[in-house]
Q: What sequence folds into this?
């Protein structure tokens, strides 16, 4: 990128040379015009106020390359996050990405509402000439009733979960601008993989890896929601970080006609459990086939068919107390103790649940984690992808197609694949 001008000339002889010599002392010298320095442009326009927090900061240069860009927010203590420092410093920096040729830079985070933003940029041309600019503008405040509420996140901070565990983020209000929100939720793991978000409804986003998580590792979820416009006029006002651990790999497999469940931990079979599954007289009492991710556990549970659409007085209604129950779907399926079922290990006689002896049901309850996996085969009813945590029922290709970005997020710290801002870049 060496743009220095090279001067060349010829040897001049005779009269012409003499004339040039004679006139050299008497001619008026004119200074060559100074070469223009690099010209730096900043957006938003310097001095503007009322800027939407999800507006990108852009810096570009003509006649040189950018050598340094920094963006600082001041006076936004209310939105302080962990990245601002333990003392809730009133200043926060905003990172960004520089193009390969050094001609432009764009922020990769949204801005804090109600803050004064200062942009410092330096550029240099091929001759080493430098230019510097300082540009300031202000973002608008967000009214109390236009602030995004803190979402509920599973897993919760510090939990240890199984290898099939999804990350489930539930917002208090419907999310309209889902791509911005997806790209503002960063997932990092010690053992990198590819994953993506899908939405089960207007308020719930789910992240799952392409395959199950590698066991024995830590995972972090950074919800960088400050300044994100979740719905028209509704902005995030805080960031949040959740850390959890993926424990050992527990995968249970069950071919329903065999009346047995095998449990493996880190690839080694640790228990073979006789079971009795759904009698399959109709769809309701047919155990679902597919990848079930264990959801919650109960030492004692009242099972009432009214909760799954069979009210009292209807054919097939039941209400029974069960012990050592583990939920495998939202359509009423659990593993649980069933001492009344004399067909355990021999025939399928349940209403769709997986019946076990008391000792086996207690062992399964006590030795499983939320996020462990039960892979079931051999029935005519397929688990729906959004029934409980049946998210692995969608192929990876389908999962990506239903992501707002359509591309995977790599959990090695690489930024998500799309924009977090309110306009296309």
A:
């Amino acid at each position: 990128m060496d743009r220095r001008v090279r001067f060349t000339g010829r040897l001049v002889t005779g009269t012409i040379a003499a004339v040039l010599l004679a006139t050299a002392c008497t001619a008026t010298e004119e200074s060559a015009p100074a070469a223009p320095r690099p010209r730096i442009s900043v957006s938003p326009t310097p001095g503007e106020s009322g800027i939407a927090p999800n507006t990108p900061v852009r810096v570009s240069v003509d006649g040189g390359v950018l050598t340094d860009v920094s963006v600082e927010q001041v006076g936004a203590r209310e939105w302080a996050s962990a990245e601002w420092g333990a003392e809730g410093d009133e200043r926060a920096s905003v990172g960004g990405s520089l193009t390969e040729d050094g001609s432009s830079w764009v922020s990769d985070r949204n801005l804090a509402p109600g803050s004064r933003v200062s942009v410092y940029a330096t550029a240099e041309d091929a001759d080493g000439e430098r230019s510097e600019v300082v540009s300031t503008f202000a973002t608008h405040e967000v009214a109390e009733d236009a602030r995004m509420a803190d979402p509920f996140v599973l897993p919760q901070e510090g939990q240890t979960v199984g290898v099939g565990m999804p990350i489930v983020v539930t917002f208090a209000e419907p999310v309209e601008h889902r791509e911005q929100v997806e790209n503002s939720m960063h997932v990092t793991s010690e053992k990198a993989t590819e994953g993506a978000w899908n939405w089960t409804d207007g308020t719930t986003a789910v992240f799952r890896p392409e395959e199950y998580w590698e066991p024995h590792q830590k995972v972090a979820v950074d919800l960088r929601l400050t300044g994100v416009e979740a719905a028209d006029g509704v902005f995030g006002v805080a960031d949040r970080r959740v850390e959890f651990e993926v424990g050992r790999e527990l995968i249970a497999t069950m071919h329903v006609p065999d009346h047995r469940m095998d449990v493996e931990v880190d690839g080694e079979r640790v228990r073979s459990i006789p079971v009795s599954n759904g009698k399959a007289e109709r769809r309701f009492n047919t155990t679902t086939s597919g990848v079930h991710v264990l959801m919650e556990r109960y030492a004692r549970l009242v099972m009432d068919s009214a909760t799954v659409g069979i009210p009292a007085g209807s054919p097939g209604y039941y209400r029974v107390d069960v012990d050592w129950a583990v939920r495998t779907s939202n359509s009423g399926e659990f593993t649980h103790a069933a001492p009344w079922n004399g067909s355990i290990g021999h025939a399928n006689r349940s209403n769709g649940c997986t019946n076990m002896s008391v000792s086996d049901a207690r062992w399964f309850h006590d030795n499983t984690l939320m996020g462990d996996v039960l892979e079931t085969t051999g029935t005519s009813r397929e688990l729906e992808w959004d029934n409980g945590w049946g998210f692995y029922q969608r192929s990876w290709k389908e999962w990506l197609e239903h992501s707002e970005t359509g591309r995977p997020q790599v959990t090695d710290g690489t930024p998500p694949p799309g924009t977090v801002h309110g306009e296309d870049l």
The mean pLDDT is 89. The chain has three domains: 39-138, 146-247+397-410, 250-392. The chain is about 10% helix and 35% strand. The domain at 250-392 is CATH 2.40.440.10 (L,D-transpeptidase catalytic domain-like).
